[in-house]
Structures are given as C-alpha cells and as structure tokens.
Amino acid sequence: MNYKRLFIALMAVLTSSICQAQTNSPIKEDFQPSTFNQPGQAYPQVNSQGYARFKIKALKADSIRVSLGLGGRGGTKLTKDAEGYFTGTTEGPMDEGFHYYHLTVDGGVFNDPGTGNFYGSTRWESGIEIPAHDKDFYAMKDVPHGNVQQILFPSKSTNTPGRRAFVYTPPGYEKGNTRYPVLYLQHGWGEDETAWSVQGHANLIMDNLIADGKAKPFIIVMTYGLTNNVRPGAGGPRTPGGLTKMILENGFQTVLVDELIPYVDSHFRTYGDKAHRAMAGLSMGGMETHVITLAKPEVFDYYGLLSGGVYTPSELGKIKPKLVFMSCGSKENPAGVNSAAVELKSAGYNTVAYISEGTAHEFLTWRRSLKELAPLLFK
C-alpha cells in the first residue's frame, strides 16, 4: 500500500471536512450554547440548522477570524461593535458532530475562551459540537457506566518510566472476577490518547450498547500512537515512508505489542490471547492498525480501519482474521471502502464495510463507526 499517497489524501479530506451546504433558507434564531462550552459561557452557539455563531470580546484587537469556516474561504470573519465585541455566524450550516477550531486575532493564533480545549491538529484546539440527529447513541443516559482510568506503563524501548494510556473497563468490572476481551483503539494524527474518550465519547457509546444488549462487554485501551523518536511537527507520516518508519523503525509497534499489551494483560482481567484481542483506529490510527496487524497476525484477530484505508486479499494472504471492518464518511472515499469489501468477501474474508452518511473526516464518522464495529467484536 502507498501510505504516503493515502496519508496525503486523508489530510486533504481533513482540511476540507468542514464543507457546509449552502442554503437559501433564512437563519433560524434558535441558537443555544454548544455542549462543549466552558461553564457559564454563552458562546459559541449553534442553531437547529447547524449554523455556528461566535462572540469574542477583544477591545484592542482589529480583526478576528474563526478557522471553522467555509473550506477555502478563510473561515468566518467576525465584526467588531462599539463595545469591543466581535460577532459572526458561519456562512452555511456545518456538518453534524464535533469540530476543532481556533481564532486568528490580528495574525496570531489563539483559542476561544468560551469553549473547552481538545488535543487535535498537534495542539490544544477549541472545539464545538453541532448536534447530530442520531446523537442518542453517544448521549449520557441513566444506564450502568463503565470506568475510564489513566494508567502509566513502563517503556524501555523509549526510555520512559511511565507512558500514558487510558483504559475503559465495562460496567461491573470492579465487582466481579470475569475476564474480558480487549480492543486497542488508536487516535488520529495530531491527536493523543484522550481523543477517543473525550471527543469520541467511546465510553458512552459502549455503555449504551452494553445496556441495550447490542455489544459484548470488553475493555478498550487507548494510548499515544507516536514514540519519543517521532513527535508531531517533526515530519512523521508526512515525510516519504514516514508512517511505516514511525510504526516499525521508531518503535510504536514495539511499544504496543511488547510493552503495553503485556502490561494490560498482567494488570487487568483479560483473556490475553489473539482470539480475544482487536485493534482498530481512526485515520493515522487506522494506518497503524493496518501495518501492525499485517506484521503481527499472531497478536490480533479483529481488525478495524476507520477512515484509515483498506486491506486487500494479496496483503492478507493466508492471514484469516475473524473480522475485517472498514469504514469512512460518505464525503470521503465510500466507493473505495465498498469495493475493497466486495473484493475481500469474494476472497473468503469475513468483511464488513460501513459508510457514515453525510460526514467527512471527522468524529461523527468515527463515533458511528465504533457503534457499528463494537457489536461485531468477540462473537
């Protein structure tokens, strides 16, 4: 697989993912604060049509532009009033779901003080949530909840006494002695190990699926997908051969397979075998999944690429995983995912393709993908 070409294509989709549909309908004045706002902050706001509105007080500033805008048009320019407030509304409705953004104030890049910060785009960015019509599956509900805890595991390969990971354990884990399967779930380029549980609501998705009897309870492990040798901004997968080098030569495969997995198996009640272990990831995390599952077929039996490319029969060869799951948004490359699934099925591989309708390279695509993937695991 040409990883350089795939990564460039994914980055192109990512940078243009906030492509709002133009509408001739008047803007409805039913704006409400975004669910990710700081406590007590009224802005940013979203309305029922998916428009976003911003209001920033900056008395001495001359111009503010919000990066959350109409693709190549440079974002949303805010207008200053006599009291020093800059206000503006996106030119069109946004895609449903979560979006990163930042402010450009007189040429400098800053976060919006009204909303929370989320690690994405290799920095802490502002975030906004455009309510999705199907948001119920990741909503906070009155159901038994699992636990997301931080662990620090030693990594000799990176000379780190405590690399960080987050572990989701399903409801009831603390009270019993049951052993569980494990999904190793990777984030995308520019994000970190917090992404899946914060932006992605992975724990809430699992809580709701388990409560509805739609998914088997399992553990999810989320760790940082880069090593000390390759950090954001230092080239990484953007350089020729960078992704494979990052995973294999610079050691993330070693961190995951030789250090993290043994630590998890010795500190949590897992089955600890291939038949009860899955790997999946979004975007770069999907590419990592692709490389590592092919290099270490004895470790994982369930594979998931979420906007992270596809497998081919020639790559898999005699490897017969129990499941190959591939997904993307309908605004990404659905034809490629669907055709790859057809080819794999014809070659005898248990394959599922999923296309998230109306989304691009963004977290609603990946939330929906996890919702579809989880019930298929460990059957």
Automatic annotation (TrEMBL):
Which superkingdom, per the lineage? Bacteria
Q: Does the keyword Lyase apply?
A: no
Q: Where is the signal peptide?
A: 1-21
Cross-referenced Pfam families, in alphabetical order? Esterase (PF00756)
Keyword tags = Signal
**A single MF term (Gene Ontology):** acyltransferase activity, transferring groups other than amino-acyl groups
Under the heading InterPro entries, the entry gives: AB_hydrolase_fold (IPR029058), Esterase-like (IPR000801), Mycobacterial_A85_antigen (IPR050583)
Please give the name of this protein.
Enterochelin esterase-like enzyme
What organism, scientifically named, is this protein from? Answer: Pedobacter duraquae
